[in-house]
Amino acid sequence: GSVTYIDLTMKLTEQIPVWSGDVVPSFTLHSTIEGEGCQTMRLLLGSHSGTHIDSPAHLIEGGKSLDHYDVSRFFARCAVLAPDGGGPLPASMAAAVPSGCDGILLAGTTTSLEIDAARRLISRGVRLFGFAGGSCDEIESTTFPVHRLLMGCDALIIENLANLDPLVGRVVDLVALPLFVEGSDGAPARVIARLS
Fold first, then answer.
1. pTM higher than the cut 0.85
2. What does the pLDDT look like over 99-124, one tens digit per residue?
3. CA–CA dist 53, 158 (Å, integer)
4. How far from 33 is each of 29, 30, 178, CA to CA, in Å?
5. Which residues, including other chains, have CB under 8 Å from residue 151's CB and lie 6 or more apart?
6. Three-state secondary structure call for residue 44
7. CA 112, CA 114: separation in Å to the nearest integer?
């Protein structure tokens, strides 16, 4: 059968939303074809700019940095879910993840994860958690309990995913490749879903 690839990556621009106090991306010409014979750009980014993957080093002192994960961890079979009306995914919806899935992707920019849902999904073997919004915790959280639980279980968190809404209810094969940065607490990533 035919295969479809869907880009789930937010395009990096200087206008993308950023977490309060985080780096505002900036892209400027460094050299031009007219002046230097080639065009290159200077990129100013935060480790959590746009679509990105968090590592435990983001919130846990001495936590594992993203460059220490085996590359196999950036591939997953994912169920795409959306709780009714946005908000936190309740624990009762954890059962909606088909067996054989080791990842979930949550559509809806206000969607987060209830702590009990996170525990239930971890117990079912889910190790990759993706979100259309900018946090797996409720946006007002200052203690980040879901981040800390997932990171403590060596799960990966992807935030600021795009184009998930048409995939709700489907299972996709996911590739999420972060920039390979030494000691990174997170990194922008190109994230692609494969439907077959």
1. yes
2. 999 999 999 988 899 999 999 999 99
3. 4
4. 11, 11, 29
5. 54, 55, 56, 58, 59, 60, 63, 157
6. strand
7. 7
